Please model this.
Amino acid sequence: MDMGRTDERTLRRRLERVEALHAGATTSGEREAAARARERLLDRIAVVRANDPVARFCAEHVAALGVAPAPPHPPAAIPSVDEVLLVLDRWAWGTWDRRAVHAWAAAVVDRVTLPDDPGDAGSVVAEVLLQLASLHLVRLSQRDLPRVRDFLLGGDWTAWFALVEEASSRRARRAG
Model:
């Protein structure tokens, strides 16, 4: 039996347990710890896969055959409200700075399929993701986080657009 595969299976079982812990977390500290553990496990899985001799052999063989690469993976699922709240908590606590939040949101937006209609499931999360991915353009700040949380949990589009307008006007005043 290939040890690389055994390691990956073991890591994936651990990942399932960590994700269950995250889903059942009752405090933001528990969610934070589970999220960090998840990130470490995903990094480890990537290393194990990169060092897997069977995967390397297959990739080299396919490349030698001149076969077109496999199609891209299907889009990832949009993050949950809890996942976005965790990122906002990291920003509020100073664990992540504005650039880290922007980089995370931009990466998520690049790999998910965003809903088309404001009434669709996930549209509130998608809206927050888009604004966080635009932090270099929109001056949302840590002091706005309670209002962002309120929008994520309540979906009040009027209040959200008022916040985005305020943040945009801050940028205009700053540029002027």
User: Anything to note?
Assistant: The mean pLDDT is 82. Helices lie at 3-24, 28-50, 53-65, 81-93, 98-111, 123-132, 145-154, 157-175.
